[in-house]
Specification:
single chain, about 270 residues, alpha/beta, UDP-N-acetylmuramoyl-L-alanine:D-glutamate ligase, 5-stranded parallel sheet, 3-stranded antiparallel sheet, 10 strands, about 40% helix
């Protein structure tokens, strides 16, 4: 009898709950591309539709709350997930609905929370009540929270100008319940970009690299968080998932296709070239 072919383990399943980007550089489009490029499987629950390109966000329309709920419910009840990644949650009602559905259908799933508050062009994507709900409802449930500096300032009220400030803000977010925080340093004034990973277990990692001087950085936050989620879903150690995600994003910036007149998209498919 012929030996059975070895069964390849199924890809890590990530349910992405986020808004769309019609330009394809950020949002749920970037999430799907990233997770797929890293060998995972992306399912989605769309929270909002945006009309945007590299020059900015031109319109936003929220998806009906009950439809957001149903997307989450039917995916988790059938396909399942190994991790959940959240992005643009534009209202407090959406945040509460998302948390309730996760608690009902997948309370043990690790949640990677990208607290999207503004777009690259500084357009506001989450209102003040949404930010409060993210802080009170979602952050305490986050396996990993991935704010940039402006988002960390909005969530903590702290000034962040130095690495000591960055560390203090990350620790403050741990104190609010997040299991781990990746506080990105791209907005800091330095030629070295230093991302900080801290965890509830006391781990502290500074992950550094030279700044790439380019305008093609649209969607870097969505992409990094989804890359981390893909690693978590795959079963990687958190530090390994974060390091792989940073490498993936860096290469995607370096190979950016140069599209658009503003903040251009990354090359998400570079690993499949």
């Amino acid at each position: 009898m012929a030996a059975e072919e070895p069964v390849e383990p199924p890809p890590g399943r990530v349910l992405v709950i986020a808004g769309s980007d019609s330009g394809g550089g950020a949002g749920i489009q970037a999430d799907i591309k990233t997770i797929t490029a890293l060998g995972g499987y992306a399912a989605t629950a769309l929270t909002a539709i945006t009309a945007q390109n590299t020059l900015g966000v031109h319109a936003v329309s929220g998806v009906e709350i009950e439809l957001v709920r149903q997307q989450i419910r039917v995916v988790l009840s059938d396909i399942g997930a190994d991790a959940i990644k959240t992005g643009m949650l534009h209202s407090a009602e959406v945040v509460v609905a998302v948390v309730q559905e996760i608690e009902a259908a997948g309370p043990s799933l690790p949640i990677i929370v990208d607290p999207v508050i503004t777009a690259k062009d500084s357009s506001r994507l989450s209102d003040d009540r949404a930010v409060e709900a993210i802080l009170s409802e979602l952050v305490p449930r986050a396996a990993v929270l991935t704010p940039n500096v402006p988002e960390a300032i909005a969530l903590t009220g702290l000034d962040i100008e130095t690495r000591a400030d960055q560390r203090a803000a990350a620790e403050a977010l741990l104190a609010k319940g997040a299991k781990a925080v990746v506080l990105k340093g791209g907005h800091m004034a330095s030629d070295v970009v230093a991302d900080l990973l801290v965890t509830q277990h006391g781990d502290v990692y500074w992950l550094e690299g030279p700044r790439i001087h380019t305008r093609h950085t649209h969607g870097t936050g969505c992409t990094l968080a989804s890359a981390i989620a893909a690693g978590v879903a795959e079963g990687l150690r958190l530090i390994d998932a974060v390091e792989r995600a940073r490498d993936y994003v860096r290469r995607a910036i370096e190979l950016a296709p140069g599209f658009g007149q503003g903040f251009g998209p990354l090359h998400h498919g570079h690993r499949r070239r």
